[in-house]
Design a protein that fits this description.
Elements: H1 11-16, H2 55-68, E1 72-76, H3 79-87, E2 95-99, H4 104-113, E3 120-124, H5 131-138, E4 142-146, H6 158-167, E5 172-175, H7 180-183, E6 193-197, E7 211-215, H8 218-230, H9 237-247, H10 250-269, E8 274-278, H11 288-294, E9 301-306, H12 310-319, E10 324-325, E11 335-337, H13 349-355, E12 361-365, H14 371-383
Parallel strand pairs: 2-3, 2-4, 4-5, 5-6, 10-11
Antiparallel strand pairs: 1-7, 6-7, 8-9, 9-12, 11-12
Helix pairs in contact: 2-9, 3-8, 5-6, 10-14
The protein binds pyridoxal-5'-phosphate (PLP).
């Protein structure tokens, strides 16, 4: 749909009423699924082979670009495929200056795969004051950040980093999976690329994997399309269709999840079996002011440190009724994760402790259930720790 200047629909409208369905003469309300691997040569829309484009990719890309209020979006098979696409645009020997607390599979990809092609990485704390100086001193080829971080929910000043990077013409990638463009706008804050695992909040139903890269820069859009077809990183039309369906309720889902999370964070903070809780929009968060400035709300992830040992913490995670113990996040159902033995199990003890991940830490992905049920579930099982 071409934007109509006289009409400026809101975000909830735009994620529902996406662009064309490529089946206009049928009157279809939902777009069809186009499983075709190939397209007859010279068709008006310019499709040729699904590895390099498909109607379901384009439909989802148009919604994602509209959500992010940017010019271009490219979809991939997963968040990790999107990361691969970006890194594949670099040269052997290039340095990526990385936030030290990046998503675990990003770290594994850089250190165990791309390092073989002489990709250099340096890991720093982007919330510390000297990170700005390090950008000047190290002059990296790319900066890679994530905010809030996983699982400690550290907030990084995206604008400050992007302003500095811009002076030195260094592209900045922000992994925005935890917030989505609904809560935080990396491109508006100066990032070159906003990356999202659409597997999480965007799809929201834990039934498809996907990734996306948004940008305002046509050169980067071309690079992403090139990576999609040359590395075979394309999603399946069916998964795009599912994610296009899921995104329609993103604003509804997320507002319920954020409401639940905010209320749970303050409830948990006062429980005697809890050492501390961390949530970006809770006044005791170390970067509360920055979170308020940078994000529209605190999201729906809460990190909790229990007064318990590893065995008790694990038993607590397994005993909950509505929080399934599982990796991933962002679905309508609540999940609980024990980072020390799950998402961050591959890190050595020293790194875990440096990042603040110990055996009594748990991460909640708060879903859309009734608040009273979630609260009751947690408080009942927390009381057994006393
Ligand atoms: C899940 C996740 C990814 C990877 O996405 P997949 O779709 O699982 O490949 C990347 N970054 C963050 C922050 C994530 O949570």
């Amino acid at each position: 749909m071409q934007p109509d200047k006289s009409f400026n629909p809101g975000i909830s409208t735009r994620v529902i009423h996406h662009g064309k369905s490529y089946a206009d003469n049928t009157g279809t309300v939902m777009p069809p699924i186009f499983p075709s691997s190939t397209f007859s040569h010279g068709n008006p829309e310019g499709f040729d082979y699904t590895r390099s484009g498909n109607p379901n990719f384009r439909i989802l890309e148009s919604v994602l670009a509209s959500l992010e209020e940017c010019k271009y979006s490219t979809v991939f098979a997963s968040g990790v495929s999107a990361i691969t696409a970006i890194v594949s645009s670099l040269q052997s020997g290039d340095l990526i200056l990385c936030e030290e607390n990046l998503y675990g599979c990003t770290v594994r990809l850089f250190e165990q795969v791309f390092s073989k092609f002489r990709l250099q990485t340096k890991w720093i704390d982007f919330s510390s004051a000297d990170s700005i100086e390090l950008i000047d001193n190290l002059n990296p080829s790319m900066i890679w950040i994530e905010s809030p971080t996983n699982p400690l929910l550290k907030i990084i000043d995206l604008k400050k980093i992007c302003d500095k990077a811009k002076e030195n013409q260094i592209p900045v990638v922000v992994d925005n999976t935890f917030s989505t463009a609904l809560l935080q706008r990396p491109l508006d804050l100066g990032a070159t690329l906003s990356l999202t695992s659409t597997t999480k909040y965007i799809n929201g139903h834990s039934d498809a994997l996907g990734g996306a890269v948004c940008t305002q820069d046509i050169c980067w859009k071309d690079r992403m399309n090139f990576a999609q077809k040359s590395l075979g990183l394309q999603p399946s039309p069916f998964d795009c269709w599912l994610i296009t369906r899921g995104i329609k309720t993103l604003p509804l889902r997320l507002s319920r999840q954020v409401e639940n999370a905010l209320a749970l964070a303050s409830e948990l903070g006062t429980h005697p079996a809890v050492a501390w809780t961390r949530y970006p929009f809770k006044a005791d968060h170390p970067q509360y002011e920055l979170a308020k400035k940078q994000m529209k709300s605190g999201g729906a992830i809460i990190t909790v440190k229990l007064k318990a040992d590893q065995k008790q913490t694990y038993a607590f995670c397994k005993s909950l009724r509505y929080f399934t113990m599982a990796e991933s996040l962002g679905g309508v159902e609540s999940l609980i994760c024990h980072p020390a033995t799950m998402t961050h199990a591959s890190l050595n003890t020293e790194t875990k402790l440096k990042l603040g991940i110990d055996e009594s830490l748990v991460r909640l992905s708060v879903g859309c259930e009734d608040f009273s049920d979630l609260k009751e579930d947690l408080s009942q099982h927390l009381s057994r720790l006393l």
